[in-house]
Structure prediction request, 223 residues.
Amino acid sequence: MKILIIDDEELLVKGIAYNLENEGYQVVTGTNGQEAIHLAQDPDVRLIVLDVMMPVMDGLEACRRIRQFSDVPIIMLTAKTEDMDKLLGFDCGADDYLTKPFNILELKARIRAILKRSGKQEIDTKIVRGSITLDSQSRSTLKNGVPVELTAKEFDLVELLIRNPNRVYSRENLLDIIWGDDYRSDIRTVDVHIRRIREKLERDPANPAHILTKWGVGYYFKV
Prediction:
């Protein structure tokens, strides 16, 4: 499943690519509209994440030209919030629109939803790990078949960890991924959320079986 990421912000592109590759996608990147047009001609491309403001050729013009030969889904990224900019994006043929800064989990959710709607990917949104069942579409959680109420941030944390088993995330990583530019706290925020999640999902929160601590490093989900 190949996805194009076209943006002239190098760190942003690296972050998106890193997260999508961890989901099993193949990622190809570019930095301007002309590269987008060239790379979009690859028949294996299934979705394009395209920034609006770029050098050489902006994303709106690139989107127009891509639509002349391809119906691949396109998600536009922009720092602008004006409704007119969004309307221009849709007029150019974009399928979705995301305003910077954004939560990477929201971008991944939109990618999964668009690919599913377009029939380009069969996705099982339900994940079962031991006694825990997570449904990313309904954002519901079960423990031994019994519904468990998680807050939005708790669900995002569990989803990230459960989709990337045995991968250790530092507190700083989790703050950046889950809270992004919205958080106004320190790394203890992560500790508090992990403690509450364990209380809700672990049989013995004091001796967790799934959401574990790698001392001195961070947290991970054990399969």
